[in-house]
């Protein structure tokens, strides 16, 4: 399952959620302000920064603030 690490106030997160919904791509959302372990994960893949949206894919790879095109391309590459 695709996981989005987010915050309630993140405009980029809201935009990407809307785009994922329009494309019919399933994902889970984890609020890093409510989940300290999630915040630690986000910092571990973003040089110590709590940058959102951070996407984690089934293979363990991550993307920070990706476009919907980047997410779709990465998902396609993983399923190939």
Topology (elements, then pairings):
Blueprint: E1 2-6, H1 11-23, E2 27-31, H2 36-45, E3 54-56, E4 62-64, H3 68-79
Parallel strand pairs: 1-2
Antiparallel strand pairs: 1-3, 3-4
Can you walk me through this structure?
The protein is of the alpha+beta class and 80 residues long. The chain has a single domain, classed as Glutaredoxin (3-Layer(aba) Sandwich). Helix content is 44%, strand content 20%. It is built from 3 helices and 4 strands; from the N terminus they run βαβαββα. The protein has helices spanning 11-23, 36-45, 68-79; strands at 2-6, 27-31, 54-56, 62-64. The chain has a 4-stranded mixed beta sheet, covered by helices on one side. Strand 1, helix 1 (11-23) and strand 2 form a beta-alpha-beta unit. The mean pLDDT is 97. Residues 3-58 form the Glutaredoxin domain. GO terms for molecular function: electron transfer activity. It holds the Pfam family Glutaredoxin. It comes from Pseudosporangium ferrugineum. This is Mycoredoxin.
């Amino acid at each position: 399952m695709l996981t989005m690490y987010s915050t309630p106030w993140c405009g980029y997160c809201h935009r990407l959620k809307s785009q994922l919904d329009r494309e019919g791509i399933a994902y889970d959302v984890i609020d890093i302000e409510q989940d300290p372990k999630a915040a630690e994960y986000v910092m571990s893949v973003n040089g110590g920064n709590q940058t959102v949206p951070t996407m984690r894919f089934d293979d363990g790879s991550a993307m920070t603030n990706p476009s919907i095109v980047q997410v779709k391309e990465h998902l396609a590459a993983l399923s190939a």
